[in-house]
Amino acid sequence: MISLIIGNRGSGKTKKLIDCVNETAKNSKGNVVCVEKGDILRFDVSSSVRLINTEEYGINGADAYYGFLSGICAGNYDVTDIFADATFKIIGKDFDIAADFIERVSALAEESNVRFTFTLSCDESDLPDKVFRYAGKF
After folding, report:
1. CA–CA separation, 56 vs 34, rounded Å?
2. pLDDT tens across 105-131, in order?
3. Phi and psi at residue 13, in whole multiples of 5°?
4. Which of 4, 58, 82, 84 qualifies as a cystine partner to 35, CB 3.0-4.6 A?
5. Residue 81: which residues within 8 A CB-CB, separation 6 or more?
6. Which residues constitute the domain of residue 68?
7. Which of 49, 42, 50, 52 has its CA nearest to residue 22?
């Protein structure tokens, strides 16, 4: 399952994501992962959450990001949830590429039984309709 937190810059997406991460960490029977570009969330998420900075691994672009997320799922079968902030800063702000990326991650979510939540900094109307076939709005 994929959920999207959509809104323009300054609309509270990251705050909502932090709240979701911390609430999920309290209730999860497995591991919770939070992926970000940079290290701005390190003081905001629970210490039980695995916080990963994509800059430390040189992750840029949708293909690299998909491979990275696949590796997290493959490397630890106890991951229940992956939260990702600043998606467009990692994959680039191309809405068609984002739609294809969401489609690929949707298949990964089904295969791995991991729930994904992404923040997308844009208007909902900017996204192609097919995004919402694979992901629900949060």
Report:
1. 14
2. 999 999 999 999 999 999 999 999 989
3. -60, -50
4. 84
5. 24, 28, 30, 32, 33, 114, 115, 116, 117
6. 2-137
7. 49
At 89 the three-state DSSP class reads: helix
Contacts of 119 (CB under 8 A, 6+ apart): 4, 5, 6, 13, 14, 17, 84, 85, 86, 87
C-alpha dist (Å) from residue 91 to 17, 44, 45, 68, 94 = 18, 23, 23, 12, 8
Instruction: Kindly tell me the burial class for residue 116, based on how many C-beta atoms sit within 10 Å of its own C-beta (0-12, 13-18, 19 or more).
Output: buried
Q: Give yes or no for a contact between 128 and 99, defined as CB atoms under 8 angstroms apart.
A: yes
With tokens 């949708």, the residue in question is 62
The CATH number covering residue 30 comes to 3.40.50.300
pLDDT, one tens digit per residue, over 58-87 is 999 999 999 999 999 999 889 999 999 999
Amino acid (one-letter) located at 73: C
Q: What number of CA atoms fall less than 13 Å from residue 114's CA on the CB side? A: 31
The number of domains in the chain is 1
The span from the CA of 124 to the CA of 120, in Å, is 9
